[in-house]
Write a structure and sequence with these properties.
single chain, alpha/beta, about 35% helix, Rossmann fold, eight-stranded mixed β-sheet, Dna Ligase, domain 1
């Protein structure tokens, strides 16, 4: 379940508390006090087996005795009693419960944990038949300040606001409530998720993404339960409002036993970081930064770049802001000559004559206003930071009022503020807060707030970037790779030999150095004779992941004689260091010069929660020491691959430096895309290393490779659902033309825009309910960059006389988070109508919807669109008048097994 019955949890009309107490200071007493005194405008009832009243309100002895069915139950009873209570509430018709109780396997001995987990499962089993949603257990509760709902045992009531704070930690909930109260920050909700037996981050992200009262969502995460749901919900939420996250556990503790460099470097925190970036969330690292980001992002002001103008009445605070800006990766704006001239005319001759703009300590409101107006108009800045430190000769409130006045008149350019001092500064902050101008306690925090806006914009642009199409030549031989891996596993091995690993890479079009496998030193010499020098010789054994550790690598061997001598020396070294090891022979391979090339590492790892991961960074034998790597999640396209690569220092080497020409960066990015496809296609690949991958102006080549295989974990492996290739097939139109029907991919954006451009204005109006001449990049990207776990769009592509290749029609469905119903849309290019394409597209999407388990597909059609309404009726849709808009008709079809593919 996802958002089903969440309104009963988050917007209940009636509440019952079970486990309330009169004992002063107990959880039950605080819980009852908060519920009854929170200001909730609806019935709050209590169940207690003995007390006649709680908080001066009558109680009932059992759930069955209640005078009405509550939407929400709040349970704080001993854990053993909870499953039965959940069952009885469900039978009564209650649809949600907050389980405060602990004791469900959070701590204790192994036996205690097992018993607690069994009890939790009984609770879930009791809830499931009634579709009753559970928040918790082991949580401090739920607060919805706009409703006066405080179903928690926190120590104070937070103010209403527009921020939803979702946290696994009860202590963090109380800390954040305190922190926010001191700063006048309110919440639309504070939810403590506890053990997340049912309701988790994905569910609440889905709910608050569409909540009009919530402008920003804050997350405090220790772990996620369903990686795919979390990423799908997070991406959907981040498209509509800022999602800001703190994740604990940043130190690397896992992967110590990994056989590959990739496994050692892909620590769990790096994977979470990759997941947050992929979903478009903004990660921060402490509470001050959390609210600094919230203050700027929830204000809905946007920046277009990283250039900041700084206005202050003191040189010192301007310098502090400048240092924080440059250390954080931002830029001090270069003020235009006309801006400097305006400032010269308005300011005393002793002003700083540059950025930061120091307007001297006696600056009052008029001086602040004139300087700010000039800086807002400056073409070379992307935002303005206004600072004030208290002086005896100027009124800080007057300065603040002047800033508010200018911002009110000149909306558009972001303005941030930081007023230092005591009482006057607090009054100024309230003034800024009331006028929705981001304000911060210190200049450093203000700069961080600006940089959050910069990072958030970059993240969103990255999500919407149109990727270049991968070369058509990238057609992997999947069956050959699968057969090779199957053979290795049939032998009971977990490690592929180097030649086998390189064969898998070659099957996916990754260039590998020519390598010959031999079994004796003499055979190595013969291979050297055929290959010619210089050569590399490596020991061949499934037991050595890092061959250099046993003297198993020799480079730059010029003659066959040198190869034979080196082979004997290797056998002696292995016999001395690892006498028990099995040696299968040697590999002889051509030496590839590293001159003019950069050593990289690329690979695949496996994360316990997010499944397959990808690694990229600086390679070589000291890769763990250098630790210049980044993690990404498959699948990838070229844009996502390059965006990940840019996060490393080695990327700057790839761009070229001094006399070093730039490497073929597209070839490196394509290698990552190919590795991502291996992760999708070959579930047995647990770890894969290419180290080094040499990258130069002429492309890339893998010098060494290792692959570890294992039985895939049950369930969904990939955190992001890849494009379902099995939906691709040929369709034939009534005129005999054959088109390819396939899922949409991000690279289709230009062809989708062209589809609209080559359709008649009337057809476009009927599809989009408004006149459009073309689709913007944002709209086209939204249609082509879809989440296959929740959406599907099928395109009909074929040869076109004017465009070469074209999309002639597209049909899409967008499912609700519960996968119960989906809304559809369809468009066929005007000159392709009457050929049966629309019918085939609709039949295909209906069949797909039935296969994925949807119960219903529905949509809205303009009443005047007679052709679409006729087709809907012929396909089995019901057609009725829209109750809210006489120009629309509502169409819907119930799905069943007969519709499935």
């Amino acid at each position: 379940m996802s958002v089903r019955n969440l309104p009963a949890l988050l917007k209940p009309r009636s509440i019952v508390v079970i486990g309330a107490s009169r004992r002063q200071g107990s959880v039950g007493q605080v819980l009852a006090r908060n519920l009854f005194r929170g200001g909730f405008d609806g019935p709050v009832m209590a169940v207690h087996p003995e007390a006649a009243s709680i908080e001066s309100s009558l109680t009932w002895r059992t759930v069955e005795d209640l005078p009405m069915t509550p939407d929400l139950a709040v349970i704080a009873t001993p854990p053993a009693s909870v499953p039965d209570l959940v069952d009885r509430l469900g039978r009564r018709g209650t649809k949600a419960a907050v389980v405060i109780s602990a004791g469900f396997g959070e701590a204790g001995s192994d036996a205690d944990r097992a018993a607690g987990k069994a009890l939790m499962q009984r609770m879930l089993d009791a809830a499931r038949p009634h579709l009753l949603r559970l928040l918790g257990p082991n949580c401090v509760g739920l607060l919805v300040p706009p409703l006066g709902l405080n179903a928690s045992f926190v120590h104070r009531h937070p103010a209403p606001g527009n921020i939803a704070f979702l946290t696994q930690s009860g202590a963090m909930a109380t800390s954040v409530i305190d922190w926010a109260a001191e700063r006048g920050i309110g919440f639309s909700a504070v939810a403590s998720l506890g053990d997340m037996a049912d309701v988790d981050f994905g569910d609440l992200l889905d709910y608050y993404a569409s909540d009009p009262a919530t402008r920003a969502i804050l997350l405090y995460i220790e772990t996620v339960t369903d990686a795919r749901k979390f990423l799908s919900a997070g991406r959907a939420a981040a498209r509509t409002k800022p999602v800001i996250v703190i994740k604990t556990g940043r130190t690397r503790s896992a992967a110590r036993a990994a056989a590959s460099h990739t496994g050692a470097l892909s620590g769990s925190d790096a994977v979470y970081d990759a997941a947050f970036r992929r979903a478009g969330m903004l990660r921060v690292f402490d509470l001050e930064e959390l609210f600094a980001a919230t203050a700027t992002l929830s204000s809905r002001v946007k920046v277009t770049g990283d250039r900041l103008a700084i206005l202050s009445n003191g040189g010192g605070i301007g310098v502090l802001a400048t240092e924080a800006l440059e250390e954080g990766g931002g830029r001090v704006a270069d003020l235009a000559p006309e801006t400097l001239a305006r400032l010269d005319a308005a300011l005393p001759g002793t002003w700083s004559h540059g950025n930061p703009v120091d307007i001297i300590g006696d600056a009052g409101g008029p001086r602040y206003a004139q300087a700010l107006e000039a800086l807002i108009d400056d073409p070379g800045s992307d935002a303005v930071l206004v600072l004030n430190c208290p002086t005896a000769v100027a009124d800080p409130i007057e300065a603040a009022e002047a800033v508010v006045g200018v911002v009110g008149e000149k909306r558009g350019r972001p303005v941030l503020t930081s007023w230092l001092g005591a009482e006057a500064a607090q009054a100024a902050r309230r003034l800024f807060h009331d006028n929705r101008i981001p304000t911060f306690d210190t200049p450093g925090l203000a700069v961080r707030g600006f940089l959050h806006m910069v990072r958030y914009r970059r993240n969103q642009e990255q999500l919407m970037e149109t990727p270049a199409a991968a070369p058509d030549a990238f057609t992997p031989d999947v069956e050959a790779a699968r057969a090779l891996i199957a053979g290795v596993r049939a032998e009971g091995r977990q490690q592929l030999t180097e030649p086998e690993a390189k064969a898998v890479l070659a099957a996916y079009g990754i260039p590998v150095v020519r390598t010959v496998e031999v079994d004796t030193p003499a055979a190595a010499g013969a291979a050297a004779e055929r290959l010619g020098g210089p050569l590399a010789l490596k020991i061949l054994s499934p037991e050595f992941s890092h061959k250099t550790e046993v003297g198993g690598v020799r480079l730059d061997l010029a003659t066959p004689e040198e190869v034979v001598t080196a082979a004997h020396a290797m056998l002696d070294s292995v016999a001395r260091l690892r006498p028990e090891a099995t040696v299968r022979g040697f590999t002889v391979q051509e030496m590839v010069s590293g001159r003019g090339r950069v050593e990289l590492i690329c690979g695949i790892g496996t994360d316990r929660q997010f499944g397959p991961t990808l690694l990229f960074g600086q390679g070589g034998t000291a890769v763990e020491v250098v630790n210049d790597t980044v993690v990404a999640l498959p699948p990838l396209n070229l844009s996502l691959a390059r965006a990940s690569m840019r996060r490393t220092r080695v990327y700057r080497l790839l761009e070229g430096y001094r006399e070093q020409p730039p490497a073929d960066i597209d070839a490196v990015a394509l290698t990552l895309v190919k590795l991502a496809q291996i992760a999708v296609d070959l579930p047995e690949v647990a770890e894969l290393d290419i180290n080094p991958l040499l990258a130069g102006p002429d492309g890339v080549i893998a010098l060494d490779a290792r692959i570890a295989v294992a039985e895939p974990a049950p369930g969904r492996r990939l955190a992001i659902r890849p494009m379902p290739q099995d939906l691709t097939r040929a369709i034939t139109l009534s005129d005999g033309r054959t088109l390819t029907l396939r899922p949409v991919v991000p690279e289709d954006e230009p062809m989708i825009q062209r589809l609209v451009e080559r359709s008649s204005p009337e057809d476009v109006r009927l599809r989009f309910f408004a006149p459009l001449r073309t689709l913007s990049h944002e709209m086209a990207a939204r249609f082509s960059q879809i989440d296959y776990d929740r959406e599907m769009a099928l395109v009909a592509e074929g040869a076109d006389a004017e465009d070469g290749r074209a999309i002639f029609g597209v049909v899409r469905i967008t499912a609700d988070p519960d996968n119960i119903r989906a809304e559809y849309g369809i468009m066929v290019r005007s000159d392709m109508k009457g050929l049966g394409l629309g019918y085939q597209l609709m039949q295909a999407i209906i069949a797909y919807g039935a296969r994925r388990g949807l119960e219903r597909i529905e949509g809205q059609v303009l009443r005047e669109n007679a052709q679409m309404l006729r087709m809907a009726r012929e396909l089995g849709f019901t057609v009725v008048n829209d109750p809210d808009d006489p120009s629309l008709m509502d169409v819907a079809i119930a799905l069943g097994e007969s519709h499935a593919i």
